[in-house]
Task: inverse folding
DNA sequence: CTTCGATTGCACCGTCCGGTTTACTTTCTG
DNA sequence: CAGAAAGTAAACCGGACGGTGCAATCGAAG
């Protein structure tokens, strides 16, 4: 009833589809898989429930599709953050702190995607193994690899000191973001900005004690 | 029908109660809060559903009660592990590795308790704030404090080197256990023993590079 | 044995949910 | 314009669930 007046645009087929996907992402993230009813997803998408079942076989397929999308969205967003802060850092410590804060607190329109990551954790034991596996490789795996690449470059430039950038990247995420993640229940509850910054700066200092250039 | 033959013992009133609690812990942990039906909990406890509602006001109160119990059980178990490995360590690195493995993989009858921790994460945004808060202080907070105490002692004995045992304890859990936690989806999926040991030993080595005695 | 409280089985209520059916309308295309 | 493709609203189905009412039962204490 909403899109009736506005000509649906000649974007073509996937017009309703993207609305469904967006709505499913929102509702799944907000309610979790079971609480999210197909009716509420349809309402959120301003779409008939039948239309959802025209696009997806059942509720689970809808979830899996949306999970896959979100995995890529989060990964690309984080890769972008990493590049932005580590491409040519002037004050390395400050950039690492800023990057850590950005990675640990999903901002802008990505909260829904991070909420879906929580769904992956909640449903992990009930999801097909290929889903959890591909999430790890396409999600955290990609950001960790991107981190490692930058660390290798920085090490070659004398800004860091490590022979194993992979391990350094792992230690960065562990020291800098893992506690903020857990403290905020994976982003489900808000973490005061000052606490976040304290956690991240402490982690970055430890990281630089491990891998800083001037020892 | 099961306890009919055996005399219910004069343990007194809470006989059925503990059965209910145990069953709720098992089923909530296995299925999550919503999937766990009160009927299935009653079946697992070999108890009438009506009896559950004689002991608890509703399903949510049952969950909250069981969560509180599990918080303490996990905390005590982990404190015990910490004491056992760090009371008088001969080979400190080996003990730290063993402790890290023990902390990162819930064994014996504690898997159900750890499964409930997953429920806390899954329901965090829908739980009363006091519940999540008290979980943090009574759960991870206690184990971290116990770790810090041992690190302070070890530092005084010259086995470690840190002025801030609190921070050292945080970095230990982050470097040693956090990745194993995330890799296993908080214990929901099994993590191969060799991978676990590799993660933990790498974390311990980094920890000792940060806080080891001989530098 | 009687009494009393705890427990039990079971039917029941209202609700919600995943998914389907049907009949109708819209929109694009040729 | 004709007709296919897509969308819509609404009723509907079978099943599950949280929670209650109630009569019957059990076990121990007096």
Result:
């Amino acid at each position: 009833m909403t899109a009736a007046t506005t000509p649906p645009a000649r974007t073509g087929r996937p017009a309703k589809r993207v609305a469904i996907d967006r709505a499913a992402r929102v509702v799944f993230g907000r309610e979790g898989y079971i609480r999210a009813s197909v009716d509420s997803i349809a309402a959120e998408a301003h779409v008939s429930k039948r239309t959802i079942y025209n696009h997806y076989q059942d509720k689970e397929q809808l979830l899996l599709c949306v999970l896959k999308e979100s995995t890529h969205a989060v990964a690309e967003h984080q890769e972008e953050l990493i590049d932005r802060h580590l491409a040519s850092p002037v004050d390395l410590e400050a950039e690492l702190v800023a990057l850590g804060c950005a990675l640990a607190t999903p901002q802008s329109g990505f909260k829904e995607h991070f909420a879906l990551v929580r769904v992956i954790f909640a449903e992990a034991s009930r999801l097909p193994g290929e889903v959890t596996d591909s999430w790890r490789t396409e999600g955290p795996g990609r950001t960790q690899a991107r981190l490692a690449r930058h660390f290798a470059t920085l090490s070659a430039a004398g800004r860091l000191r490590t022979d194993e950038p992979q391990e350094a990247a792992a230690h960065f995420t562990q020291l800098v973001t893992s506690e903020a993640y857990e403290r905020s229940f994976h982003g489900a509850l808000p973490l005061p900005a000052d606490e976040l910054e304290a956690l991240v700066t402490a982690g970055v200092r430890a990281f630089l004690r491990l891998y800083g250039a001037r020892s």
Notes: Residues 1-56 of chain B form a domain with the Arc Repressor Mutant, subunit A fold (CATH 1.10.10.60). Chain B has two domains: 1-56, 71-211. The interface with chain A takes residues 32, 34-35, 118, 120-122, 124-125, 132, 136, 140, 167, 170-171, 174-175, 178-179, 182-183, 185-186, 188-189, 202-203, 206, 209-210 of chain B (CB under 8 Å). The first helix of chain B runs from residue 15 to 31.
